[in-house]
Write a structure and sequence with these properties.
Three copies of one chain form a homotrimer. Chain A has three domains: 3-86, 3-Layer(aba) Sandwich (Udp-n-acetylmuramoylalanyl-d-glutamate--2,6- Diaminopimelate Ligase, Chain: A, domain 1); 95-307, Hexapeptide repeat proteins (UDP N-Acetylglucosamine Acyltransferase, domain 1, 3 Solenoid), CATH 2.160.10; 319-346. In chain A, 17% of the residues lie in helices and 27% in strands. In chain A, the strands form five sheets. Chain A has a twelve-stranded mixed β-sheet with strand order 6-9-12-15-18-23-26-29-32-35-37-38, covered by helices on one side. Chain A is flat, with a radius of gyration of 28 Å. At the A-B interface, strand 20, strand 21, helix 3 and helix 4 of A face helix 2, helix 3 and helix 4 of B.
């Protein structure tokens, strides 16, 4: 495809050599002649001069380059759309595979694709164009919206409700029992029936082997457009707002609430029963024991403002030296005080 | 159901309005007229005055409220039992589904429910009332006690032994190979056959996508009544005592031993080859590199007594200021010392 | 088996009592008469005097013991080989189970074992002696080398390539979609098609419920001989070098590169877009935000040299005391300075 044609489809500005032929999209270090590449992370600008790519997608404010380039105000989005010009995702066959186990009273929308060994329980309702890959398991009473994709070995437990265009990656468990046990006097625990459910709103994606627990009462909710990465834990009764991004291995204990647009790096932990305001951001491995106001940028364990954490983390490295200095000061002051008392008399 | 009837069944004291009608159990913020709610966590006491619930379960020592209330010495347990009055868990159909693959020599106890695509390997022995949800996989030689429930996509590997009333949530892996490799001189690793097994005692619950590894020799053991949350890792040859509670994403490396009643918040990490005494408690994200005595309350990375950690964490925030102070002290003392030497002479 | 015969097969030196009869291999604390045990971790040397084992495998430099012993320069490897003399792993039946769903155009090598409900997608190519346990799911277009073992509920997504002797433990997901989303101006996210794949080289083992994401473009690569533990996350486009060992719950964000022989303890987190040199080692829970040179031993959050971390972690415990000392110094110096000015005049 000509670069000019790509520019037209992506609504990008093209700089020089409009007629270069592009056959593939590739990362900047792997790209070969014929490839279109991109830089959206400044860390990779240094690779531009060495890339073998035939053209590059760049932000409007990136420096000039000798390579033919497409300029975009959102180069990462332009890259995403360029990919779609060159790759077709595998589309599973429509229809219900004869080796699927679909309850006789389940309502299946038009154009469904239900693979071998998929299970659809009693009373389920599936919207149009739903894709259940082989081995997807839908417990009884589940509602799936339109264009939902459930990958192999994912499980949607009883009575959960998923909106439209939700994507569940492999092995994710939606609606497993929340971790609720009442302690008894003899030290043992009494299981609290998890009588609630999980609601996943439109356009959410849940990563591989993530676990979203059902509530004891009421619902655990994942808000519209939120993206939950692999191996993330969402505790029972928690609410994740719209357009949140929770990176891999992050954990949210029970009954916590994240506002809209909250972002967490990998392995962040949120305690239970807390509130996080809209747009708060957490760097990787942050441990959050308390409420966090909207817009905050937090780091550390326990979490503090990122700027404080950066300053304190740097200061900790000076601590052994500081201890030595204080010891010397104590000697000096002890000596000095004695000196202050005695030296004048000596003179 | 009348509140008085609920009180009778839960053996709670009822305060005022015994004849209010209850139709549901709900969380304090979501509750509507007709709902019974509860407060066991002090954080939620502030919501009592605004709840729309018709009645509330409270601890004996909680403040007086205008709402009709049930008073219990264990309000969380009373809530758990109240739930059971209003909700029936889905009970899968009894019998072996024709699309299950059950080995001809497997011994299946009475009243079993084995769903479609469940697999029971050769030589397995399943107790009475076992429930295998669709896609549960039981490798050969496994023993399951009575009333065991294995959810879809959970796996019990070869020769593992589960006691009575054990619940395995979706996607949990019991008895995967322990992570054992002997380093060779060329830098490569030689896989150590994991010839041991896993024993899970009575009344244990294992969370979604948790992994309990089999031992190289001997057994990995999860003690009676312990509750293991989602995405927890138990390394090979470890022993978890009775009535332990390990919250989500906690990891226990190999050959470690937890005593009875040990509790760990989320994302706690225990190193291998260590011992933790009975009743020790670890706050979320604690990193435990060494033995811990019984009854300790630990926090931090590396773990120290919680009180020390709280004091030190607060102190770290003062560290940048402390460094500045020490710098000023050094100047003052250097100036002072000079001053100490010279000023008396000047006067 | 006589100890002398074991010594011969393991090529170990035998010390005293060559004709003792061994029937089992066991851990040092559980061992009974008739058992062969071993010590490779110095922590267990103290148990040697109390073990009931009939013989023990020890390193050449370990102290003399009264027990009959096998001496080896690599006692852990000798233990691994001794296990193989006494235990046979369960070998699943050869052949394709009638309840497996194998695409008509998939190429299956000789001696394959494909269990019930296993799925092999269109266009797959499986080498000789491949074992797919029940419920293994192989999406279309996958290539598996010889002697690959895929355990129940593991998934290999479309177009991934696995080398020879790769072992995939239960529930692992190879090739799930990378976590790539382009932010849009309205705060929502646009899913970036993950058009790349995953390459897993020879002799790799992937742990239970681990997730290795496919790349957006190009490949995520796990290098030859690397061992990845349970619940580990490998982000899209990352490259793990040869013979790396990543312990449980470790996470590697996207586009990072680990050199050869990198070792990480449990729950380590690596940020994206970073490089780690050959042989670098990370203790458990380390958080790595930046590049790390070859051979480094790193700890802490954020990661620093282990020796620095040890020194600083110890220093933090002195911090509350240090703050008190500085306060006293300030008083002393303030008093001293005043004193320096006034006392001489008083005298």
């Amino acid at each position: 495809m000509k670069l000019s044609e790509i520019a037209r489809r992506l609504q990008c500005r093209v700089v020089s050599h409009e007629d270069v032929d592009i056959v593939r999209v590739a990362g900047i270090e792997e790209a070969c002649p014929g490839d279109l590449t991109f830089v959206s992370n400044r860390k990779y600008v240094k690779h531009i001069k060495d890339t073998r790519a035939s053209a590059i997608i760049l932000g409007e404010k990136m420096p000039e380059v000798s390579l033919p380039s497409l300029r975009s105000s959102n180069p990462y989005l332009a890259f995403a759309r360029a990919l779609e010009l060159f790759y077709q995702p595998q589309v599973p066959e429509q229809g219900i595979h004869p080796a699927a186990a679909v309850a006789s009273d389940a309502a299946i929308g038009p154009n469904a694709s239900i693979g071998p060994f998929a299970v659809v329980g009693a009373g389920c309702r599936l919207g149009a164009n739903v894709v259940l890959h082989p081995h997807a398991v839908i417990y009884p009473g589940v509602v799936l919206g339109e264009n939902v994709v459930v990958h192999s070995h994912a499980v949607i437990r009883e009575s959960c409700v998923l909106g439209n265009r939700v994507i569940i990656q492999n092995g994710a468990v939606i609606g497993g029992d929340g971790f609720g046990f009442a302690p008894r006097e003899d030290g043992s625990y009494y299981k609290i029936m998890q009588a609630g459910s999980v609601i996943i709103e439109d356009d959410v994606e849940i990563g591989a082997n993530a676990a979203i627990d059902r509530a004891a009462v009421g619902n655990t909710v994942i808000g519209r457009g939120s993206k939950i990465d692999n191996l993330v834990q969402i505790g029972h009764g928690s609410r994740v707002g719209e357009n949140c991004v929770l990176a891999a291995q992050t954990g949210l204990a029970g009954s916590s609430r994240l506002g809209r647009g909250v972002r967490a790096g990998g392995q962040v932990g949120f305690a239970g029963h807390l509130e996080v305001g809209d747009g708060a951001t957490f760097t990787a491995q942050t441990g959050v024991p308390h409420d966090v106001p909207a817009g905050a940028l937090m780091s550390g364990y326990p979490a503090v403002e990122n700027s404080t954490w950066l300053r304190c983390s740097a200061a900790i490295l000076k601590l052994p030296d500081l201890i030595r200095k204080v010891r010397e000061l104590e000697k000096a002051v002890a000596g000095g005080r004695t000196g202050g008392d005695t030296r004048p008399e000596k003179t």
